[in-house]
Request: fold
Amino acid sequence: MPRPRAVARTVEHPELSEVSLQQVLEALVDPVRRMLVSQLVRAGADLSCGTFDVSVSTSTRTHHFNVLREAGLIRQYYVGTTKMNTLREAEMEVRFPGLLSAVTAAAAAEQEAQARS
Reply:
């Protein structure tokens, strides 16, 4: 019989005041991470790690979520054994005004142009 956890699982998140523009841009330069962020924007809700539509392995997906979290772009939390992801959109808007909306709009336009080709 498994032992119950004494402490709830938590995930560490950086204060956005400690996150540099360079760190955010480096996180968003990767197309898979832009896709993850774009899917969160389109969903308009929190999503579990397994619900994202990306063609990478689970371990690679975990790496990308860690980079996004460490750059302050997402917040992760547990609901039971499921790790949920939420975009720190309002906080990012205060720290780097217009950046996240510009990047996600550009990513959507690029994806639309590729679909037409």
The chain has a mean pLDDT of 92. The two ends are 56 Å apart (CA to CA). The first strand starts at residue 47 and ends at 48. The longest helix spans residues 99-116.
